[in-house]
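re: ur question from earlier - yeah i can do the single chain one, its not a big deal. heres the input i used so u can compare w yours
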Amino acid sequence: MPRTQLYTGPLWRAFLVFLLPLIGQNILQSLSMTINAIVVGRMLGTGALAAMATFMPLAFFFIAFLIGVTSGASVLIGQAWGARKIDLVQRIGGTAIGVTLGLALVIGGGGWLAAPAILRLMGTPPDIMAAAVTYARAAFATMPVLFLFIVAGALLRGTGDSVRPLVVQAVATVVSGVMTVVMVAQLGMGVAAAAWSAGIAQAAGLVVLALWLRARSHPLAPGRALLAALVPDPSLLKTVLRIGLPTGAQLVVGSLSGLVIVGLINRFGSDATAAYGAVSQVQAYAQFPALSIAIAASIFGAQAIGAGHSHRLGAVLRTAMAMNLALTGGLVALVYLFSRPVVSLFLSEPEVVDLAQHLLHIVSWSALLFGAGTIFSGIMRASGTVIAPMLIAMGCVLLVELPLAVFLSRTFGLQGIWWAYVANFAALLVGQGAWYLLVWRRRRITALV
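and the output i got, formated as tokens:
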């Protein structure tokens, strides 16, 4: 069994070695969506791009519970890996995969049937409704593959492996990009091509990953031990859900707020919706380093706790904060410098480009605040502390972001909605930082497994 990431040298170097492939994977994942958006926007028009943009918060809503389960599973695997308990790693992995498959089938089938009704409730503009339904149904049909793709990467990261998920994501990104162009230009599949190509590409990536893990006799390789563990272990599932459900609930609230935000934006017309789609794509790049750093902090923290080295959690926090300032801050600076050519990749109408650039200038810098807040919550989650961070995050959305979005959109128009995002991230940093420093840091930290 390989040594944990914490024992491979100075903490900052081990953190960076793990972090860079993780950032690369997240960038490639976003790049895959970006390529699809560029192909759809350029070849099929602004209406088709707006149809995809409308589905974004809806998709995140339906995978929110999965993200919660995988966060709980990765914390437990990190602790088990730090304690060098291989059989427990396999049991946790099998439980997470089994639950994921069941969840994916329910959401995929139900979403296919309910897509038109849900999109109507979101206030989707009539001129893009048909395209939005077509895209949504294709995305729901491929959701089981997406769910497995997400959980596989999360489980491997829990063991300190960020390289294999990067390579598999690279395979999926290349396959998806090529297939989207072929499906749109040659097969005439329209906006649904973006969803079908992503599902096929992720399936190809999973095949590559399975063969790679089996060749290396990895504890999480498909085999008899992992297959036997697919029937969830009740005690492990209870612990996974105890950590994961609050995280999932937090993400559900965040995604529900996203649906409300899209509804507010849709009132300003399809141009505003298209601008939202472009800004969301660019902002994802600015936030992915921050998210990656928080994930790395949580995993390093979990490994430290599992190995009996809780005293190193403070060093993990300081390292993560420094990385956030350097990496997220640097990327935000690039977004500001090249904002117009970047949004022009998605949009062709000059007035919509101007709008998207203005909105991007308002919100981009808040990625630094978002990153710092999520680092605090990531460290606390490594110990199984999730209720307080969840309540803080949900409070920021429900008591800060949504009321301000409604009020400021009526007072200042579309730009007011984006200022509400900034206020939310500022409140998140203050709340999570205060709980970490004043409450959590004073507690005794012990392993969960």
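The radius of gyration is 21 Å. not sure if urs matches, ping me
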